[in-house]
C-alpha cells in the first residue's frame, strides 16, 4: 500500500515537472550563438539591419515565423527579426568560472564561451604542427560579401532570396 | 530461497526496474525542456528521495544517461568554428589555393546567396569559399562553413546552375554537420571530460596538452574522411537532397546538379584520389536525384546568368 502510494507520488511529481517545463518554454529568452548576429526589419536576409548583436547577447522571443524569430533586446527598444540558426536556448557564459564549468558539464542550459576547442588549443596545435599554415584560412575569412552584393547578384541573375530555408 | 527473502528480492527488483525505467521515460517526455541527462538526474533524485532506488543505483543510471547525451551535438558552434579552421588549414596545406580574387569573389557571392537559403544560414564564423589550384575533381566542406572547390571541379560546371549545385551540396554537408559526425565519439567524451575538470579561465598545461591531442585526433578523423575515405553513401545522398532544396529556394534549376554529374562521369578516372574515391558513382547520384526531382529537363542557359558565369570561369 505504502509502495503504491510512493509510486503514485513519484509519478505525480514527474507529471508536474513536465507541465512546468511546457509552461516555462512559453516565454523564451535566447542567446546569440554566432560571432556577429543581425536583427533585421523583416524576416529575410534582404531586410534592413536594425541592430548588430554579439556572441552571447540575450534576446526575448516575441514571435516565430518559419525559421525566423521576432525578438526584442532587453533594456533597449530595439527589436526585429533574426534567423533561428543564429540563436540558442542555452545561456552563453562569456567569462566562465569554476562553478559555471561544473554546471555546464552536468546540464544543457549553459554553453561556455571560449572553452573546449578554442583559440588557445588552435595556438597549441600550430606550435605542434608548424607545417600547417593558417594564412589562407585567415585570408578567406576576410572575404566580405555585403548584403547589397547578394541582392544585386540575385536580381541580375533572375533569382530570389532564399529566406533562410523558409 | 525463503518466501520472505523472495518477496523482498522481487520487491527490490521491481523498485529498481521502476526507478531505472521511469526516469529516462519521463526524461524523454520532457526532453524539449532539459537534456536527457539533466532530467534523468531529477528523475533519479526523486526516486532516491522516495526510497524507490538507492544512491548507487541512481549514480549508475545517471552515468549511462550521461554517456548517451554526449555526442557531436554537444560541440558548440564556437568549437565547431575552431575545428573547421584547422581542417581548412590542413586542406590548404595539401592543395595550393587559386589566387584569383575575381573568381574567388564570384564564388563567395554565389555561395553566400545559397547559404542564406539553407537551413543553416548562420554559423559562428559565417560561410567562406575558396578555389583550389588543382586539376583533381574535388570539393571539401570544413565544419562551420569553410568550403573549397578545385579548378578541376569547376571545369565540370558548364553553367552557373551547375556551379551553384556543387556549392549547395557542400553547404548541405555543413548544414547536416557531417564533418562533426566523422569525429569518433570517444574523442568528444574525452574533450568534455577535460572541460569538466578544468575550472579556470586558462587551461592548465596538462589539460591543454590533453585537449590539443584530442583536437588533433578529431581533425585527423575529419580530414581523413574528407580526403581519403569519403562519407557514407547515405550522407552524400542527403547532401544532394539538401542541395536540391537550397537550389529551388533561390531559383536555380536542380538539373544543374545532374548536368555537373554527367560531365564528371566522363572525366573521373577510377583509382584516383578524388571524387572517384570519396563519392558514390555519379550514375548512382543521378538515379537518386531523378526520384526526387523527376525527369531531366535541359537547364536554360539563355538568360542573364550565362554571360556573367562565363566571364569569370571560361578559362578556369
UniProtKB/TrEMBL annotation, chain A:
Q: Which Gene3D superfamilies match?
A: SH3 Domains
Give the Pfam families listed for this entry: SH3_3
Q: Which UniProt keywords apply?
A: Signal
Looking at the record, the residues that make up the SH3b domain are: 39-87
Which residues constitute the signal peptide according to the record? 1-24
Name of the protein in its database record: SH3 domain-containing protein
Give the originating organism.
Desulfonema magnum
Automatic annotation (TrEMBL), chain B:
Q: Looking at the UniProt record for this protein, which Gene Ontology cellular component terms does it annotate, in alphabetical order? A: membrane
Q: Name one Pfam family in it.
A: Peptidase_M48
Q: Which residues form a coiled coil?
A: none
Q: What are the record keywords, sorted?
A: Hydrolase, Metal-binding, Metalloprotease, Protease, Zinc
Q: How is the cofactor bound?
A: Binds 1 zinc ion per subunit.
**Gene Ontology BP, a term:** proteolysis involved in protein catabolic process
Q: One GO MF term, please?
A: metalloendopeptidase activity
Task: List cofactor names only.
Answer: Zn(2+)
Instruction: Work out whether the entry's keyword set contains Hydrolase.
Output: yes
> Is Protease found in the keyword set?
yes
Start and end residues of each Peptidase M48 domain: 107-291
Q: Which family does it belong to?
A: Belongs to the peptidase M48 family.
Q: What is this protein called?
A: Peptidase, M48 family
Q: Which species does the entry assign this protein to?
A: Desulfonema magnum
Q: What is the lineage of its organism?
A: Bacteria, Pseudomonadati, Thermodesulfobacteriota, Desulfobacteria, Desulfobacterales
